[in-house]
Amino acid sequence: MNEPSGYYESNTTLAQYLEFHFGESWHGEANFPKELADAALGALDGRASCRALDIGCAVGRTSLELARQFDHVDGVDYSETFIGKCREVVREGVARYARPEEGELVSYQERSLAALGLTEAARRVAFHQGDACKLGADYRDYDLVLAGNLIDRLYNPSLFLEQIHERINALGLLVIASPYTWLEEYTPRQDWLGGFLKDGEPFTTLDGLKAALSPRFRLLAEPRSLPFVIRETRNKFQHSFSELTIWEKLPD
After folding, report:
1. Mean pLDDT across 22-33
2. What is the pLDDT of residues 153-206, one digit of tens each?
3. Position 3 confidence tier, pLDDT thresholds 50, 70, 90
């Protein structure tokens, strides 16, 4: 299997993701982790909201936003660095980080959960380090599973999709968002869900998702794109789009 890159364990990446989750909005785009949670909550449409799983939670903003409505949220990420910071933010009620500006220059940032209205929600979130493709048996009975910008960073995304129904209650939701930026650094070429020719025709990641999920899920609505901006430095930004799909688990 491909081992996940050390990119997600570096202090620079941690600071960039803390800015992404808790910092300013850039280039006119809304806060993506919050927008993703809002989209998932909006899709519930009266369904149960007892337990949620945010898999690939990074530094935790989406998990916290889901906990505004859910009784309990589990946030899981492979990165020990990310999960350690999630726990620190909940424990101290504030995200502190050195934001990269230029070369070795940084600016010191502080964002409180109270200012974001997340103090109460934080009490309903538990953060765990874990492998999305090898989750323990305790991760089950969820009304919502959210995988934000995750599947194109898994070493075996098909395995993840084949197993995920076991963790979701009947009529519960699976929410997937991804820019579909497949790289062999993370996923072996033979394990990509899409982004290649199949029988001489373009086969997209959405095609792959439909093929993998259709036996146990139905697509609730047409996919839509959510923009996001990751600030690397004062003068460098990643401006991308993540395709959002929402799936309902069929009755057993």
Report:
1. 96
2. 999 999 999 999 999 999 999 999 999 999 999 999 999 999 999 999 999 999
3. very low
Q: How far apart are CA 192 and CA 173, in angstroms?
A: 23
- pLDDT tens string 96-114: 999 999 999 999 999 999 9
Enumerate the domain spans of the chain.
Answer: 6-249
Which among 50, 43, 78 has a CA at the least distance from the CA of 244?
43
State the residue for tokens 């009620």: 93
H-run or E-run covering 131: none
Tokens standing for residue 188: 């072996």
Looking at CATH, the fold of the domain delimited by 6-249 is given as Rossmann fold (3.40.50)
- What dihedral do alpha carbons 7, 11, 12, 16 form, nearest 10°? 90
The stretch 39-49 carries a mean pLDDT of 97
- Judged by DSSP in three states, 158 sits in helix
Rounded to whole angstroms, the Cα distance separating 120 from 212 reads 37
Q: How far apart are CA 252 and CA 243, in angstroms?
A: 28
Selection from 230, 33, 16 nearest residue 116 by Cα? 33
